[in-house]
Predict the structure.
Amino acid sequence: MSHTLLLMGPLLPSIMATLESTYTVHRYWEAADQPALLSKISADCTGVVTDGGRGVEAAVLEQLPGVKIVSVFGVGVDAVDLDYCAKQGIPVTNTPDVLSDDVADMAIALALSVSRQLVNGDAYARAGRWPTDGAMPLTRRVMGKRAGIFGMGSIGRALAKRLEGFDMQISYCNRSEKADSGYRFEPSLQALAESVDYLFVTASATPGSVGAVNAAVLDALGKDGYLINVSRGTLVDEPVLVSYLREGKIAGAGLDVFAAEPTIPEALFALDNVVLQPHNASGTWETREAMGKLVLDNLAAHFSDQPLLTPVS
Ligand code: 8YV
């Protein structure tokens, strides 16, 4: 008999197809009566599969005492109740590294888009304003500027490599210094913000990083500074960010992530110093396939008593 899994939300169709042909999968998000589903599978369910945004809460895991693995489609595990999993000895796996290049690409795309006003330029061209109004307003150069990276993990390093191509001076803030990186380490996020033109947020969401990009950090970034966030919206004090963008207290922002997804603060829609994405930094076929494969491989390793490929430490 195949192992019984609870799937919290939809994944890539090809990954779901493999999952459903290998295991007995129950689709939580489609259940009309979710508590009834949990009690129905309570005795049999041995694993949970979810994505980084949905995660899984203790209230669900408590109903499934046989669960011995949580496999996450995503690198961020902030939506999983890690304390509960640790207490119960449930290993959690994620999908690091395979998405770093695409997420770094998105950070670069956002920095270029907001600085060079790509979205506004596109609208200007499509509205036929070039022949009537002449050239669009001038924009800001990216190359050669100072970049600060908050979070020097796999995504931070992939981003730094790209920023080098733009001849940028690179500094970073991280829990610990990465001496081998060759970039300037700045332990204080506020001091980092003060010394750069672009502040990139790539750190994972932990109790220590949530809310870290606050008013003091944005003040330090200043009216000529840009914020680019491809990590989690919760790392930024979002209401403060919105008001700073409105009032021109920072130059602009490129945002792929928000505090209460999929809701984006409506005030941002009217601002032309912001470029928005619907949390799509890892959203390429190539990366999503690779993430899905890691989810499947971790499950296969678990169910055949092999070491997990990418356990969350
Ligand atoms: C995904 C992410 O969009 O990896 C993460 O932590 O946030 C993204 O890659 C998400 O997990 C898929 O829904």
